[in-house]
Amino acid sequence: MEQINASVVSNEPLTGEYWLLQVDAPSISAALEPGQFVNIRVSGEHGPFLRRPFSVYRVSSDRTRLQVAYKLVGEGCRLMRDTLRPGTTCDLIGPLGTGYDLPAEARTIALVGRGIGIAALPTLADLAASRGITSHAFLSARTRDNIVGTEIFSHHGGMVFLHSDDQPGGVTMVTDHLLAEASKIDFDAIYVCGSNRLIRAADTLARKLNIPAQSAMEQHMACGFGDCHGCVIEVNLDPAGEKKAYREVCHYGPVFNTWEVVNA
Ligand SMILES: Cc1cc2nc3c(=O)[nH]c(=O)nc-3n(C[C@H](O)[C@H](O)[C@H](O)COP(=O)(O)OP(=O)(O)OC[C@H]3O[C@@H](n4cnc5c(N)ncnc54)[C@H](O)[C@@H]3O)c2cc1C
Ligand code: FES
Which SS3 state, helix, strand or coil, does residue 100 take? Predict the structure, then answer.
């Protein structure tokens, strides 16, 4: 983990309410594992005081640049859009947290993302492809134009299932597609980032199929590296959920086994 002032290469609209920031960050890009994040300081006239955490969306093939896909949520993200221009620098700390675990023996995996959560998955799809692992993507958002990264997932050759809440039809959530595909495909693991509903669906399926499932969690953060205890959540210490404990999402996560966080 290190703090750097990274040169901004570009900062442009991506799709829907999302923008894409690209910075030069060779040391962080080289060390980054899928699911890890960076903590960005943005400053306007009156703050904000705290850094803002973001998944790394993509790393360039020479591992010198990284991208962050961010949704225009509040003051911090609007300042990112307005102040991080090419030629300026971006103060960021990374790589932070514990990322996804991709078992060496995996052959086929499912990537399940919703909204902002989709941004945590392309680096995992890239790593899987580099190891010859097929990844199928199950992506959803409120509206179709807020589903990011579809071309990244399809580029790797796996199937890409999309669902938006404004879409008519019989499918109520994107995991309906995952349930249908799981009867035809032997998935070795499921990776999620999105809503609690997705985590519950993935965890139920993973238990039924006896395969691992992991989820990246989003939580309000301050330091981002385990010092302030500002991002604590309750987790299960056993799959039955009988014993519980408190864990810092930025340090023990953001990626947890789904059984650790489901109904915790
Ligand atoms: C590990 C991690 C990875 C993330 N990756 C991405 C990403 O790749 N792309 C992306 O667009 N967003 C991501 N987020 C969420 C992002 O950090 C928040 O959207 C951002 O901090 C909002 O800042 P803001 O100043 O624009 O909004 P604020 O004005 O601070 O907040 C606006 C709204 O966002 C909520 N919010 C604020 N901070 C967080 C937070 N840390 N987590 C969840 N909700 C928050 C507030 O409750 C409020 O409703 C991630 C969060 C975490 C913890
Ligand atoms: S944000 Fe400080 S401990 Fe997690």
Answer: coil
